[in-house]
Design goal:
The chain has a single domain, classed as Rossmann fold (3-Layer(aba) Sandwich). 45% of the residues lie in helices and 10% in strands. It has a 4-stranded parallel sheet. The longest helix is centred in the C-terminal third of the chain and has 19 residues. The chain is globular and about 40 Å long.
C-alpha cells in the first residue's frame, strides 16, 4: 500500500485530509454507489473490485464510519438495496440521505468525506480509504501510523 502513495504522491494530500477529518470527528461518512460498486450490474466484470469494496467498508465501519448508499435509483428499490446489504453483512446507515445532521444543511446533496463509485476512480479512492483506515486503526490501538 505504501508503494502506491510513493508512486502517486498527488494522492497523499487526499489521504492526509481524510485522516485529519477522521481524527477530528472520530467518524467519517462514506458515500457509496450501489450498482457496479457493491452489487454486480449488467455485464461489468468487476467481481474482485466489489469484494474489495465490501471488505474495506466493513472494516471502516468497525473503526468509525457511516456507510451511506448514494444511488440514482428510485426509492421503491431502497428495500431491495437494504436487503442486499443485510445479506452480505454490510451495515448501512442510510440510503440517499445524510446519516446525521451536518452543519451544512440538507440541500439535496449527500455529504461524504469520501465517495466510493465504480465510475469515479474506484481503486484510487479505495487505496486512500484503506490507508486512512489502517492509519486510524493503528493510532486507536497504539500502533504505527503507516507514515507515507
Amino acid at each position: 500500500m505504501k508503494e502506491y502513495f510513493e508512486k502517486h504522491p498527488e494522492s497523499v494530500k487526499y489521504l492526509n485530509r481524510l485522516i485529519n477529518e477522521w481524527r477530528q470527528h472520530g467518524k467519517i461518512i462514506i458515500g457509496i454507489d450501489f450498482d457496479g460498486t457493491i452489487s454486480p450490474y449488467h455485464t461489468l466484470e468487476n467481481e474482485d473490485d466489489i469484494k474489495r469494496v465490501i471488505s474495506i467498508l466493513k472494516i471502516a465501519r468497525e473503526i468509525g464510519a457511516y456507510n451511506v448508499i448514494f444511488t440514482a435509483c428510485n426509492p421503491d428499490r431502497f428495500e431491495y438495496i437494504q436487503d442486499y446489504c443485510d445479506s452480505i453483512g454490510l451495515i448501512i446507515d442510510s440510503i440517499n440521505q445524510n446519516p446525521i445532521d451536518i452543519p451544512y444543511g440538507k440541500n439535496g446533496k449527500i455529504y461524504a468525506n469520501i465517495f466510493i463509485d465504480d465510475r469515479a476512480g474506484l481503486n484510487e479512492a479505495l487505496n486512500i480509504l484503506e490507508m486512512a483506515m489502517y492509519t486510524i486503526r493503528g493510532s486507536k490501538n497504539g500502533g504505527a501510523n503507516f507514515d507515507v
